[in-house]
Design a protein that fits this description.
alpha/beta, Rossmann fold
């Protein structure tokens, strides 16, 4: 239930408007918080479909568990295997998709609770972005860089693997100097490629040097770097996204995700119904937020009671990354609504 403790000298017009707005927003407020859009809905996946719904549901659940925990062996773990076996119980919707695929959406909150109860580490959907530099050597001196406008099978495969691992990726623009970038990939000097991460809004860089084999498959030497995270792997196209996802999980997956805390966030600069709704939407969409209630309303300020999943610091970090609330006193969780 949402409630409001009005100060001794409230603005009667604004207070009345907020009271009306509470009724209008009741369904939004009481509904589960909208998930952050950095990756999208972690609990919606698309899998191959051969006519057996239950088999497709199990495959989809396996993908979800790998994506959420960051562990490739997650579906086989004793505490999580029942989720796979009973996957149909957690399905909230499904539909046929082009290419003999089935799009499946699960009850994320229920799966989240099982993972929390198991004591396993997990990741939210507010995830680091990775810039991929993939240079292909198709033989005969034909080398080319995969770009964002590429429609090749290689790019599609890497995108699909990254999606299964819950790894947001970006590719270099076709207007970039891809000839030079290709040379840098093969030279082994990746400094300029790493420096480009900030320009593309990426947190990490994945560099792949792919050679076409006699079996008409690619063997790829992958290098990954992000802040203090580094790694390398040799394998197929899938080895790169797997490498990046596992490195990120080693830092971002937390057993503290099962914690629940309630924190008061005060937002200033709220002088209209539109500003109130904007502040509510902003908080509700943050990845660690599981519920928002109004605690107090004053003439130009609203205090929200925010239910947070994860470490107590997760909320302030999410607000900072989101950028739509500007810190007034971040230590006390006081923010100003951006114009």
């Amino acid at each position: 239930m949402y409630y409001c403790n009005v100060s001794a000298r409230p603005n009667p017009v604004f207070a009345a408007r907020v009271a009306v707005l509470f009724a209008a927003l009741a369904l939004v407020v009481l509904a589960p918080a909208v998930r952050a859009e950095s990756f999208g809905d972690l609990y919606s996946v698309t899998v191959p479909y051969a006519g057996d719904n239950d088999a497709a549901f199990r495959d989809a659940m396996r993908d979800v568990l790998v994506r959420v925990t960051g562990r490739r062996d997650a579906p086989d773990l004793e505490n999580l295997a029942p989720l796979v076996a009973q996957a149909s119980r957690y399905v909230t919707s499904f539909r046929r998709a082009p290419g003999n695929q089935l799009a499946v959406t699960f009850d994320g909150a229920a799966i989240e609770n099982v993972i929390d109860a198991s004591g396993l580490a997990s990741m939210g959907n507010d995830r680091p972005v990775t810039l991929v530099w993939l240079a292909l050597d198709r033989g005969g001196g034909r080398r080319a860089m995969v770009s964002s406008s590429d429609t090749s099978a290689e790019k599609s495969e890497v995108d699909a693997i990254a999606a299964r691992r819950g790894l947001p990726v970006v590719w270099p623009d076709a207007g970039d100097d891809l000839v030079r970038a290709t040379q840098q990939v093969w030279s082994g000097n990746h400094d300029a490629l790493k420096d480009a991460a900030r320009r593309y809004g990426a947190d990490g860089v994945l560099v792949g040097r792919a050679r076409l084999t006699a079996a008409n498959t690619y063997e790829v030497d992958w290098q990954f770097s992000s802040a203090d995270l580094n790694g390398s792997a040799t394998g197929g196209l899938e080895a790169g996204p797997d490498l990046a996802a596992e490195r990120y999980a080693s830092v971002y997956a937390s057993r503290g995700a099962a914690q629940r805390t309630e924190q008061i966030v005060t937002v200033t600069g709220i002088a209209s119904l539109e500003a109130y709704a904007s502040a509510m939407r902003t908080l509700s969409r943050l990845a660690p937020v599981r519920g928002v209630a109004v605690d107090e309303v004053t003439p130009d300020t609203v205090s929200f009671r925010v239910n947070v999943r994860g470490d107590p610091e997760a909320l302030s970090q999410a607000i900072q990354r989101d950028g739509r609330l500007q810190a007034v006193d971040s230590g006390r969780l006081i923010y100003a609504l951006s114009p």
